[in-house]
Amino acid sequence: MKRILIADHSEIANRMFCTGLSKCGFLVTAVANVRDLLHQCSIGHYDLLLMDLYLDKTNQLEQILYLKKLCPGLFILVMSDEPDVSSAVQAMKNGADDFIEKPCELNLLTGKIQELLNSEAGWKEKRSREEEDGGWNSERPVERIEEVVAKVRDYQTTVLITGESGTGKTMLAKKIHFTSIRKGLPFVHVNCSAIPPNLFESELFGYEKGAFTGALRMKPGKFEAAGAGTIFLDEIGLIPIHLQSKLLNVLQERCFERVGGNESIVMEARVIAATNANLEQCVEAGTFRRDLYYRLNVIQLEMPPLRYRREDLHSLTEQFIQRFCQNFGKPVPKISASFWQAVENYGWPGNIRELENAIESAVVLCGDSLDARCLPLRVTCMPLGSNKVSPVQVSDNESKPVPHHLKQYLKQQEDAMILEALSKFNGRKEKAAQYLGISDRTLRYKISNMEGKNPQDR
User: Which of these, 131, 317, 404, 411, is most buried using a 10 Å CB contact count?
Assistant: First the structure.
Protein backbone atom coordinates (compact mmCIF):
# COMPACT_ATOMS: atom_id res chain seq x y z
CA MET A 1 0.00 0.00 0.00
CA LYS A 2 1.34 3.41 -1.00
CA ARG A 3 1.73 6.03 1.74
CA ILE A 4 0.53 9.57 1.18
CA LEU A 5 1.21 12.63 3.35
CA ILE A 6 -1.41 15.40 3.23
CA ALA A 7 -0.35 18.93 4.23
CA ASP A 8 -3.27 21.37 4.37
CA HIS A 9 -4.04 24.12 6.90
CA SER A 10 -7.75 23.19 6.83
CA GLU A 11 -8.77 20.39 9.20
CA ILE A 12 -11.91 19.83 7.11
CA ALA A 13 -9.82 19.40 3.95
CA ASN A 14 -7.42 17.03 5.73
CA ARG A 15 -10.32 14.94 6.99
CA MET A 16 -11.89 14.82 3.53
CA PHE A 17 -8.61 13.83 1.85
CA CYS A 18 -7.86 11.18 4.50
CA THR A 19 -11.30 9.62 4.20
CA GLY A 20 -11.42 9.65 0.40
CA LEU A 21 -7.87 8.43 -0.26
CA SER A 22 -8.06 5.76 2.47
CA LYS A 23 -11.10 4.29 0.70
CA CYS A 24 -8.98 4.17 -2.47
CA GLY A 25 -6.46 1.91 -0.76
CA PHE A 26 -3.81 4.41 0.35
CA LEU A 27 -2.27 4.77 3.81
CA VAL A 28 -2.79 8.45 4.61
CA THR A 29 -1.32 10.79 7.23
CA ALA A 30 -2.32 14.45 7.55
CA VAL A 31 -0.55 17.51 9.00
CA ALA A 32 -1.76 21.10 9.26
CA ASN A 33 1.43 23.18 9.47
CA VAL A 34 4.98 23.37 8.12
CA ARG A 35 6.58 22.23 11.39
CA ASP A 36 4.65 18.96 11.43
CA LEU A 37 5.22 18.52 7.70
CA LEU A 38 9.01 18.70 8.09
CA HIS A 39 8.85 16.40 11.14
CA GLN A 40 6.92 13.73 9.26
CA CYS A 41 9.20 13.96 6.23
CA SER A 42 12.27 13.56 8.44
CA ILE A 43 11.10 10.51 10.42
CA GLY A 44 8.75 8.66 8.03
CA HIS A 45 8.73 7.31 4.49
CA TYR A 46 6.04 8.55 2.13
CA ASP A 47 5.55 7.87 -1.55
CA LEU A 48 3.72 11.12 -2.30
CA LEU A 49 3.13 14.50 -0.66
CA LEU A 50 -0.10 16.37 -1.41
CA MET A 51 0.71 19.92 -0.24
CA ASP A 52 -1.29 23.12 -0.10
CA LEU A 53 0.84 25.84 -1.68
CA TYR A 54 -0.27 28.28 1.02
CA LEU A 55 0.29 26.07 4.06
CA ASP A 56 0.57 28.28 7.19
CA LYS A 57 -1.00 31.02 4.98
CA THR A 58 2.36 31.74 3.32
CA ASN A 59 3.68 30.72 -0.08
CA GLN A 60 5.65 27.48 0.21
CA LEU A 61 7.50 27.54 -3.13
CA GLU A 62 10.90 27.69 -1.40
CA GLN A 63 9.83 24.88 0.91
CA ILE A 64 9.47 22.59 -2.10
CA LEU A 65 13.20 22.96 -2.82
CA TYR A 66 14.04 21.96 0.76
CA LEU A 67 11.66 19.00 0.71
CA LYS A 68 13.24 17.66 -2.50
CA LYS A 69 16.63 17.68 -0.75
CA LEU A 70 15.21 16.17 2.45
CA CYS A 71 13.25 13.44 0.60
CA PRO A 72 14.73 13.05 -2.90
CA GLY A 73 12.49 10.09 -3.75
CA LEU A 74 9.22 11.82 -2.79
CA PHE A 75 6.59 12.73 -5.38
CA ILE A 76 5.16 16.20 -4.64
CA LEU A 77 1.70 17.18 -5.87
CA VAL A 78 1.00 20.86 -5.13
CA MET A 79 -2.55 22.21 -4.80
CA SER A 80 -3.88 25.74 -4.42
CA ASP A 81 -7.27 27.47 -4.23
CA GLU A 82 -5.62 30.65 -5.63
CA PRO A 83 -3.93 29.18 -8.69
CA ASP A 84 -2.06 31.19 -11.27
CA VAL A 85 0.19 30.16 -14.11
CA SER A 86 3.35 31.64 -12.61
CA SER A 87 2.90 29.76 -9.29
CA ALA A 88 2.31 26.49 -11.10
CA VAL A 89 5.35 26.98 -13.33
CA GLN A 90 7.58 27.97 -10.40
CA ALA A 91 6.36 25.03 -8.30
CA MET A 92 7.33 22.64 -11.10
CA LYS A 93 10.72 24.36 -11.50
CA ASN A 94 11.36 23.95 -7.77
CA GLY A 95 10.80 20.21 -8.06
CA ALA A 96 7.04 19.61 -7.76
CA ASP A 97 5.82 16.73 -9.91
CA ASP A 98 2.36 18.17 -10.66
CA PHE A 99 -0.03 20.99 -9.79
CA ILE A 100 -3.78 20.80 -9.15
CA GLU A 101 -6.44 23.43 -8.48
CA LYS A 102 -8.60 23.38 -5.34
CA PRO A 103 -11.33 22.42 -4.83
CA CYS A 104 -10.85 19.25 -6.84
CA GLU A 105 -12.97 16.16 -7.26
CA LEU A 106 -11.69 13.00 -5.59
CA ASN A 107 -11.69 11.09 -8.89
CA LEU A 108 -9.48 13.74 -10.52
CA LEU A 109 -7.12 13.84 -7.55
CA THR A 110 -6.88 10.04 -7.34
CA GLY A 111 -6.21 9.88 -11.07
CA LYS A 112 -3.29 12.30 -10.79
CA ILE A 113 -1.87 10.41 -7.82
CA GLN A 114 -2.13 7.06 -9.59
CA GLU A 115 -0.60 8.55 -12.72
CA LEU A 116 2.45 9.71 -10.76
CA LEU A 117 2.88 6.55 -8.71
CA ASN A 118 2.35 4.17 -11.64
CA SER A 119 4.50 6.06 -14.11
CA GLU A 120 7.36 3.79 -15.15
CA ALA A 121 9.57 6.79 -15.87
CA GLY A 122 8.55 8.32 -12.57
CA TRP A 123 9.47 5.22 -10.62
CA LYS A 124 12.85 4.99 -12.35
CA GLU A 125 13.54 8.63 -11.51
CA LYS A 126 12.40 8.10 -7.93
CA ARG A 127 14.65 5.07 -7.46
CA SER A 128 17.55 6.91 -9.10
CA ARG A 129 17.20 9.89 -6.79
CA GLU A 130 16.97 7.61 -3.74
CA GLU A 131 20.12 5.71 -4.66
CA GLU A 132 22.08 8.89 -5.45
CA ASP A 133 21.15 10.31 -2.07
CA GLY A 134 21.83 7.05 -0.24
CA GLY A 135 18.31 7.20 1.14
CA TRP A 136 15.54 4.70 1.71
CA ASN A 137 15.59 1.64 -0.53
CA SER A 138 12.04 0.55 -1.36
CA GLU A 139 13.22 -3.07 -1.60
CA ARG A 140 14.26 -3.12 2.08
CA PRO A 141 11.62 -1.33 4.19
CA VAL A 142 12.97 -2.95 7.38
CA GLU A 143 16.25 -1.10 6.93
CA ARG A 144 14.35 2.19 6.90
CA ILE A 145 12.58 1.20 10.13
CA GLU A 146 15.93 0.43 11.75
CA GLU A 147 17.23 3.86 10.72
CA VAL A 148 14.26 5.58 12.36
CA VAL A 149 14.57 3.43 15.50
CA ALA A 150 18.21 4.47 15.84
CA LYS A 151 17.12 8.13 15.73
CA VAL A 152 14.19 7.99 18.17
CA ARG A 153 14.97 5.19 20.64
CA ASP A 154 16.41 7.45 23.36
CA TYR A 155 13.63 10.05 23.27
CA GLN A 156 10.38 10.02 25.25
CA THR A 157 8.34 10.54 22.07
CA THR A 158 5.34 8.22 21.69
CA VAL A 159 5.70 5.59 18.97
CA LEU A 160 2.80 3.88 17.15
CA ILE A 161 3.67 0.57 15.48
CA THR A 162 1.22 -0.63 12.84
CA GLY A 163 1.09 -3.74 10.69
CA GLU A 164 -0.71 -7.01 10.15
CA SER A 165 -0.89 -9.67 12.85
CA GLY A 166 2.37 -11.55 13.24
CA THR A 167 4.66 -9.04 11.52
CA GLY A 168 6.85 -8.55 14.59
CA LYS A 169 5.39 -5.45 16.25
CA THR A 170 6.19 -6.72 19.75
CA MET A 171 9.76 -7.57 18.74
CA LEU A 172 10.17 -4.05 17.36
CA ALA A 173 8.83 -2.50 20.57
CA LYS A 174 11.31 -4.55 22.60
CA LYS A 175 14.13 -3.56 20.25
CA ILE A 176 13.32 0.13 20.76
CA HIS A 177 13.42 -0.35 24.53
CA PHE A 178 16.40 -2.71 24.91
CA THR A 179 18.66 -0.66 22.60
CA SER A 180 17.78 2.63 24.30
CA ILE A 181 19.01 4.34 27.47
CA ARG A 182 16.01 2.69 29.21
CA LYS A 183 17.29 -0.86 28.62
CA GLY A 184 17.98 -1.43 32.33
CA LEU A 185 14.49 -0.29 33.32
CA PRO A 186 11.15 -2.19 33.16
CA PHE A 187 9.48 -3.11 29.88
CA VAL A 188 5.79 -3.64 30.67
CA HIS A 189 3.76 -5.37 27.95
CA VAL A 190 0.00 -4.73 28.19
CA ASN A 191 -2.18 -6.88 25.92
CA CYS A 192 -5.25 -4.66 25.61
CA SER A 193 -7.25 -7.45 23.93
CA ALA A 194 -6.93 -9.69 26.99
CA ILE A 195 -8.19 -7.27 29.67
CA PRO A 196 -11.95 -7.33 30.44
CA PRO A 197 -13.49 -3.84 29.95
CA ASN A 198 -14.56 -3.56 33.59
CA LEU A 199 -10.97 -4.17 34.79
CA PHE A 200 -9.21 -1.95 32.28
CA GLU A 201 -8.89 1.18 34.41
CA SER A 202 -7.67 -0.65 37.52
CA GLU A 203 -5.19 -2.73 35.47
CA LEU A 204 -3.62 0.30 33.82
CA PHE A 205 -3.68 2.77 36.70
CA GLY A 206 -3.99 0.58 39.82
CA TYR A 207 -6.37 1.04 42.74
CA GLU A 208 -6.44 2.03 46.40
CA LYS A 209 -7.52 -0.20 49.27
CA GLY A 210 -11.30 -0.13 49.55
CA ALA A 211 -11.82 1.41 46.11
CA PHE A 212 -14.35 -1.32 45.32
CA THR A 213 -15.59 -4.66 46.68
CA GLY A 214 -12.62 -7.02 46.91
CA ALA A 215 -9.97 -4.26 46.95
CA LEU A 216 -8.37 -5.47 50.17
CA ARG A 217 -5.05 -3.75 49.55
CA MET A 218 -3.51 -1.09 47.36
CA LYS A 219 -2.34 -2.37 43.99
CA PRO A 220 -0.15 -0.39 41.55
CA GLY A 221 -1.15 -0.48 37.88
CA LYS A 222 0.85 -1.11 34.72
CA PHE A 223 1.81 2.55 34.25
CA GLU A 224 3.19 2.68 37.78
CA ALA A 225 5.01 -0.64 37.34
CA ALA A 226 6.74 0.68 34.22
CA GLY A 227 8.40 3.45 36.22
CA ALA A 228 10.81 5.34 33.99
CA GLY A 229 11.00 2.42 31.54
CA THR A 230 8.63 1.60 28.69
CA ILE A 231 4.96 0.65 28.68
CA PHE A 232 3.90 -1.19 25.54
CA LEU A 233 0.16 -0.94 24.82
CA ASP A 234 -0.42 -3.82 22.41
CA GLU A 235 -3.69 -3.91 20.39
CA ILE A 236 -4.38 -0.31 21.40
CA GLY A 237 -7.41 -0.20 19.08
CA LEU A 238 -9.32 -2.50 21.47
CA ILE A 239 -9.33 -0.10 24.43
CA PRO A 240 -12.99 0.61 25.34
CA ILE A 241 -14.18 3.93 23.96
CA HIS A 242 -15.27 5.21 27.39
CA LEU A 243 -11.71 4.80 28.75
CA GLN A 244 -9.94 6.40 25.81
CA SER A 245 -10.52 9.90 27.19
CA LYS A 246 -8.73 9.01 30.43
CA LEU A 247 -5.80 7.51 28.53
CA LEU A 248 -5.64 10.66 26.38
CA ASN A 249 -5.55 12.81 29.52
CA VAL A 250 -2.74 10.70 30.98
CA LEU A 251 -0.69 11.03 27.79
CA GLN A 252 -1.24 14.80 27.68
CA GLU A 253 -0.73 15.60 31.37
CA ARG A 254 1.75 12.77 32.04
CA CYS A 255 0.17 11.99 35.39
CA PHE A 256 -2.63 9.75 36.69
CA GLU A 257 -4.47 8.67 39.81
CA ARG A 258 -5.21 5.19 41.09
CA VAL A 259 -8.85 4.15 41.09
CA GLY A 260 -10.36 5.41 44.35
CA GLY A 261 -7.36 7.64 45.08
CA ASN A 262 -6.62 11.36 45.05
CA GLU A 263 -2.82 11.32 44.83
CA SER A 264 -1.47 12.44 41.47
CA ILE A 265 1.29 10.11 40.24
CA VAL A 266 3.75 11.37 37.64
CA MET A 267 4.07 9.15 34.56
CA GLU A 268 7.73 8.76 33.67
CA ALA A 269 7.40 5.86 31.22
CA ARG A 270 7.84 6.07 27.48
CA VAL A 271 4.70 4.88 25.66
CA ILE A 272 4.82 2.57 22.65
CA ALA A 273 1.51 1.44 21.15
CA ALA A 274 0.78 -1.16 18.50
CA THR A 275 -2.22 -2.20 16.44
CA ASN A 276 -3.09 -4.40 13.48
CA ALA A 277 -6.27 -2.37 12.92
CA ASN A 278 -6.52 0.70 10.70
CA LEU A 279 -7.01 3.35 13.38
CA GLU A 280 -8.02 5.96 10.83
CA GLN A 281 -10.92 3.75 9.79
CA CYS A 282 -11.73 3.17 13.48
CA VAL A 283 -11.83 6.96 13.95
CA GLU A 284 -14.25 7.32 11.05
CA ALA A 285 -16.37 4.47 12.43
CA GLY A 286 -16.54 6.18 15.83
CA THR A 287 -14.81 3.39 17.77
CA PHE A 288 -11.57 5.28 18.39
CA ARG A 289 -11.09 8.89 19.46
CA ARG A 290 -9.54 11.15 16.85
CA ASP A 291 -7.62 13.19 19.42
CA LEU A 292 -6.19 10.03 21.01
CA TYR A 293 -5.12 8.80 17.57
CA TYR A 294 -3.23 12.02 16.89
CA ARG A 295 -1.64 11.88 20.34
CA LEU A 296 -0.39 8.34 19.78
CA ASN A 297 0.63 8.84 16.16
CA VAL A 298 3.68 11.04 16.78
CA ILE A 299 6.13 8.63 15.19
CA GLN A 300 4.58 5.81 13.18
CA LEU A 301 6.48 2.68 12.21
CA GLU A 302 4.70 0.35 9.82
CA MET A 303 5.90 -3.26 9.94
CA PRO A 304 5.64 -4.69 6.41
CA PRO A 305 4.02 -8.12 5.94
CA LEU A 306 6.30 -11.05 5.13
CA ARG A 307 4.97 -11.27 1.57
CA TYR A 308 6.65 -7.90 0.93
CA ARG A 309 9.89 -9.05 2.55
CA ARG A 310 10.75 -12.04 0.38
CA GLU A 311 14.43 -11.16 0.60
CA ASP A 312 14.28 -11.76 4.39
CA LEU A 313 12.55 -15.14 4.11
CA HIS A 314 15.74 -17.22 3.87
CA SER A 315 17.55 -15.49 6.72
CA LEU A 316 14.52 -15.64 9.04
CA THR A 317 13.98 -19.32 8.25
CA GLU A 318 17.62 -20.16 8.93
CA GLN A 319 17.52 -18.24 12.23
CA PHE A 320 14.45 -20.20 13.36
CA ILE A 321 16.01 -23.52 12.32
CA GLN A 322 19.17 -22.75 14.29
CA ARG A 323 17.19 -21.65 17.36
CA PHE A 324 14.84 -24.63 17.49
CA CYS A 325 17.61 -27.14 16.82
CA GLN A 326 19.50 -25.65 19.77
CA ASN A 327 16.38 -25.63 21.97
CA PHE A 328 15.57 -29.26 21.19
CA GLY A 329 19.17 -30.49 21.29
CA LYS A 330 19.06 -31.64 17.66
CA PRO A 331 21.82 -31.30 15.06
CA VAL A 332 21.10 -28.83 12.26
CA PRO A 333 19.62 -30.96 9.45
CA LYS A 334 20.36 -30.85 5.76
CA ILE A 335 17.82 -28.62 3.98
CA SER A 336 16.36 -29.96 0.74
CA ALA A 337 15.34 -28.05 -2.37
CA SER A 338 11.69 -29.03 -1.83
CA PHE A 339 11.74 -27.39 1.61
CA TRP A 340 12.98 -24.07 0.23
CA GLN A 341 10.54 -24.24 -2.67
CA ALA A 342 7.61 -24.77 -0.30
CA VAL A 343 8.72 -21.88 1.93
CA GLU A 344 9.10 -19.53 -1.04
CA ASN A 345 5.82 -20.52 -2.73
CA TYR A 346 3.63 -20.00 0.32
CA GLY A 347 2.11 -16.56 0.99
CA TRP A 348 2.56 -16.58 4.83
CA PRO A 349 -0.65 -14.72 5.74
CA GLY A 350 0.27 -15.16 9.41
CA ASN A 351 3.61 -13.47 8.70
CA ILE A 352 6.65 -14.06 10.93
CA ARG A 353 4.61 -15.71 13.69
CA GLU A 354 3.25 -18.29 11.24
CA LEU A 355 6.72 -18.88 9.78
CA GLU A 356 8.19 -19.37 13.26
CA ASN A 357 5.50 -21.90 14.23
CA ALA A 358 5.87 -23.76 10.93
CA ILE A 359 9.64 -24.05 11.34
CA GLU A 360 9.27 -25.22 14.94
CA SER A 361 6.91 -27.97 13.75
CA ALA A 362 9.26 -28.91 10.90
CA VAL A 363 12.30 -29.16 13.18
CA VAL A 364 10.40 -31.40 15.60
CA LEU A 365 9.20 -33.72 12.81
CA CYS A 366 12.35 -33.88 10.69
CA GLY A 367 15.04 -36.54 10.77
CA ASP A 368 18.42 -36.02 9.15
CA SER A 369 17.01 -33.63 6.55
CA LEU A 370 14.32 -30.99 6.23
CA ASP A 371 12.04 -31.41 3.23
CA ALA A 372 8.60 -30.21 2.24
CA ARG A 373 6.87 -33.08 4.05
CA CYS A 374 8.07 -31.75 7.41
CA LEU A 375 6.15 -28.50 6.95
CA PRO A 376 2.49 -28.09 7.98
CA LEU A 377 -0.04 -29.26 5.46
CA ARG A 378 -1.38 -25.78 4.71
CA VAL A 379 2.08 -24.71 3.51
CA THR A 380 2.69 -27.54 1.06
CA CYS A 381 -0.87 -28.23 -0.10
CA MET A 382 -1.99 -24.88 -1.46
CA PRO A 383 0.55 -22.07 -1.56
CA LEU A 384 -1.27 -18.85 -0.75
CA GLY A 385 -0.79 -15.87 -3.00
CA SER A 386 -0.27 -18.01 -6.09
CA ASN A 387 -2.44 -19.87 -8.58
CA LYS A 388 -0.81 -23.18 -7.83
CA VAL A 389 -2.98 -25.77 -6.15
CA SER A 390 -0.85 -28.87 -6.59
CA PRO A 391 1.61 -30.22 -4.01
CA VAL A 392 5.15 -28.83 -4.12
CA GLN A 393 7.23 -30.32 -6.92
CA VAL A 394 10.55 -31.94 -6.01
CA SER A 395 13.53 -33.16 -7.94
CA ASP A 396 13.79 -36.76 -9.10
CA ASN A 397 16.30 -37.70 -6.40
CA GLU A 398 13.91 -36.71 -3.62
CA SER A 399 10.88 -38.65 -2.51
CA LYS A 400 7.63 -36.93 -3.49
CA PRO A 401 5.19 -35.78 -0.78
CA VAL A 402 2.03 -37.77 -0.36
CA PRO A 403 -0.97 -36.04 -2.04
CA HIS A 404 -3.19 -34.26 0.46
CA HIS A 405 -6.98 -34.27 0.56
CA LEU A 406 -8.95 -31.02 0.70
CA LYS A 407 -10.94 -32.10 3.77
CA GLN A 408 -7.75 -32.75 5.73
CA TYR A 409 -6.29 -29.42 4.60
CA LEU A 410 -9.39 -27.47 5.64
CA LYS A 411 -9.43 -29.19 9.04
CA GLN A 412 -5.85 -28.15 9.67
CA GLN A 413 -6.57 -24.57 8.60
CA GLU A 414 -9.56 -24.44 10.95
CA ASP A 415 -7.52 -25.78 13.87
CA ALA A 416 -4.81 -23.20 13.21
CA MET A 417 -7.36 -20.37 13.22
CA ILE A 418 -8.87 -21.58 16.50
CA LEU A 419 -5.46 -21.88 18.16
CA GLU A 420 -4.50 -18.39 16.99
CA ALA A 421 -7.76 -16.92 18.33
CA LEU A 422 -7.30 -18.64 21.71
CA SER A 423 -3.73 -17.38 21.90
CA LYS A 424 -4.83 -13.86 20.98
CA PHE A 425 -7.30 -13.77 23.88
CA ASN A 426 -5.18 -15.74 26.39
CA GLY A 427 -7.42 -18.83 26.26
CA ARG A 428 -10.70 -16.98 26.88
CA LYS A 429 -13.09 -19.08 24.83
CA GLU A 430 -16.01 -16.62 24.82
CA LYS A 431 -13.79 -13.91 23.33
CA ALA A 432 -12.22 -16.31 20.83
CA ALA A 433 -15.66 -17.52 19.74
CA GLN A 434 -16.85 -13.95 19.23
CA TYR A 435 -13.70 -13.16 17.24
CA LEU A 436 -14.22 -16.24 15.03
CA GLY A 437 -17.92 -15.53 14.55
CA ILE A 438 -19.14 -18.82 16.08
CA SER A 439 -20.99 -19.74 19.27
CA ASP A 440 -19.23 -20.79 22.50
CA ARG A 441 -20.75 -24.25 22.17
CA THR A 442 -19.47 -24.69 18.61
CA LEU A 443 -15.98 -23.57 19.63
CA ARG A 444 -15.85 -26.03 22.54
CA TYR A 445 -17.00 -28.84 20.25
CA LYS A 446 -14.32 -28.03 17.69
CA ILE A 447 -11.64 -27.86 20.40
CA SER A 448 -12.65 -31.30 21.67
CA ASN A 449 -12.19 -32.67 18.14
CA MET A 450 -8.70 -31.30 17.60
CA GLU A 451 -6.24 -34.05 16.81
CA GLY A 452 -3.99 -34.37 19.82
CA LYS A 453 -3.94 -30.65 20.51
CA ASN A 454 -4.81 -29.03 23.79
CA PRO A 455 -5.24 -25.28 23.21
CA GLN A 456 -4.95 -24.57 26.94
CA ASP A 457 -1.42 -25.94 26.91
CA ARG A 458 -0.27 -23.57 24.22
Answer: 317
